[in-house]
Amino acid sequence: MHSDLVFNADGKVEGVDVEWTFDDAYAKLALEGMDTNGDGQYSQDELAPLTKENLDALRDYNYFTYFHTANKKLEIGAPKRAGQTYNGKLHLHFEVPLKEPYDPRQGALTLQIYDPEFFISFDYIKDDPVGQEGDVPKGCEMVLKPVPSDKDIAATQAMLATKPADWKPENGEDFGSLFAQALVVSCK
């Protein structure tokens, strides 16, 4: 995947524009019957029903997109600017807006894209994994944290082993967030 944080003219984060590249097995299944004119190509119009179907299904999973600050999870709105393309790989792109823009100068903002049920793997592309639309406020920086290492995962597992069965992570997070790569915007 690739993610672009969207900043408005006031330096507030308005959301994230994501692009996912699907694996070949899913793409083969998803594209079946989509070439309605039989020309061997998949136009935006031909892929529109698949885009709608994907976004409708993702609604129940919060579009696998989670923004949070140190003390709360931020609410998102319905996706916009959505579409799919196929160029040997199937790509889905859409913007997930925050319900209320967030000013990272008020405290660090973290974005994580993951499946809380651990079924789907989301991996950032190696070259240019994140970017932005608009300008990051002066004195602020975006940092894509490294993928949790085996040592980090072992430490998380050891910590979880000390918790009672009804324990929940702080800040309304779920267990998947403990293992997901994070994009953090922080300001001095």
Account of the protein in words:
- The protein is α+β, with helices and mostly antiparallel strands.
- It has one domain (2-187).
- It has three helices and ten strands; from the N terminus they run ββααβββββββαβ.
- Strands 5-6-2-1-8 form a five-stranded mixed sheet. A five-stranded antiparallel sheet has the order 4-3-7-10-9, with no helix packed on it.
- It is globular.
How would the blueprint of this fold be written?
Layout: E1 2-7, E2 13-21, H1 24-31, H2 44-59, E3 65-68, E4 73-74, E5 80-86, E6 90-102, E7 109-113, E8 130-133, E9 140-144, H3 150-161, E10 182-187
Parallel strand pairs: 1-8
Antiparallel strand pairs: 1-2, 2-6, 3-4, 3-7, 5-6, 7-10, 9-10
Helix content: 10-25%
Query: Would you identify the regions where 5 or more consecutive residues have pLDDT less than 50?
Result: none
Kindly report the spatial arrangement of strands forming the biggest sheet: 5-6-2-1-8
Mean pLDDT across all amino acids: 92
Biggest β-sheet: count, sense, barrel? Answer: 5 strands, mixed
Number of helices: 3
Distance, first to last CA: 28 Å
In percent, how much strand structure appears in the residues? 25-35%
Shape: globular
The number of distinct structural domains comes to 1
Write down how many β-strands occur, each being a DSSP E stretch of 2 or more residues: 10
| H and E string | EEHHEEEEEEEHE
Structural class: alpha+beta
